[in-house]
Amino acid sequence: MTRAEEAAPPGGRRRSPWLRFGWRALRTAALAVLGLTGVMMLFEKQLIYIPHRQLELTPAEVGLAADEVFLTTEDRVRIHGWYLPVRGSRRVVLVCHGNAGNISHRLDRALLIQSKLGADVFLFDYRGYGRSEGSPDEQGTYRDARAAYRYVTDDRGLDPDRIVLFGESLGAAVALQLALESRAGAVVLESPFASVPAMARALYPFLPLAPVVRTRYDNLAKIAGLRLPLLVLHGERDEIVPFSQGRQVFEAAPGPKRFFSIARAGHNDTYVVGGDAYWVAWREFLDELALPATEAGSG
Question: What is the pTM (predicted TM-score) of this model?
Fold first, then answer.
């Protein structure tokens, strides 16, 4: 028997070496995808939450008066915040920040909210961020926002109708959940994504992550239940959250609602690139809201 005959499979037909190579390459690629998917699942929280412990600025360093507060959440986690009053304020903007940094990185925007909108600002850090205890997860961020809301309404005694719930990026999902549970005057969502699975598909289209991620933040599924006036802001060149996802969330929301697209703005420079037009969009939206008869200026 010849060497070729010895290598031949039953029936006398030999398997092409290119076919064998193709199957091996496909198997290797499949194993690599599964392995990378497993790694992404293992480090899911580290990919979603990027907390900074060090506070880089204080309100005093940028000329802001502040009441420093430590709050205890419903699951007994101690979180940190700054209440920033302005004289003659008629509203408070409760800020749910994005997934990176901490409240010290939001002081420049807080200063602009005060000067452009004449509103108090309440900044709080999620668990694991800044001086807040614990480590972040989806349900934990919701609990942290509830504690912040209780501080504004219960401890400071402010009328809920004077509260504007504001969330940026991941914070948009936190603000939306709070808006579904709580009474407030309005909600403003900046750069909202459809859901974490939708973001996984957008950022890692070659990995089957969407069905297996445990963190949901499903704005698109929740937004239909909103019963507050809504403003959505989104940069047209957002390199993190696709502009199309912000539009999806807006289209699925009931009214009253407004959408403001920020020309040439990316994910983190909306209020800088947007300039005066950005703040005009805020003011026009807020001017349409009814306020309680009694003044609540806390400055």
Answer: 0.85
pLDDT class of 204 with cuts at 50, 70, 90: confident
- Report the 3 state secondary structure along 194-261: CCHHHHHHHHCCCCCCCCCCCCCCCHHHHHHHCCCCEEEEEECCCCCCCHHHHHHHHHHCCCCEEEEE
Peptide bond into 85 cis (omega under 30): no
Q: Is 267 a catalytic residue?
A: yes
CATH architecture of 51-287: 3-Layer(aba) Sandwich (3.40)
Across residues 266-287, what is the average pLDDT? 97
Q: Which of 89, 144, 238, 298 is catalytic?
A: 238
Catalytic residue (one of 89, 132, 169, 298): 169
pLDDT at 294: 56
Parallel/antiparallel/unpaired status of strands 67-72 and 78-84:
antiparallel
234 is catalytic: no
- 52, 67, 161, 267: the catalytic one is 267
| Better-scored residue on pLDDT, 53 or 294 | 53
Token duo for residue 103: 């409240």
**3-state DSSP helix/strand/coil % of the chain, to nearest 5:** 45, 15, 40
Q: What is the pLDDT of residues 114-164, one digit of tens each?
A: 999 999 999 999 999 999 999 999 999 999 999 999 999 999 999 999 999
CA dist 275 and 286 (Å) reads 17
Token output for 170:
């991941």
Mean pLDDT confidence for 48-56: 96
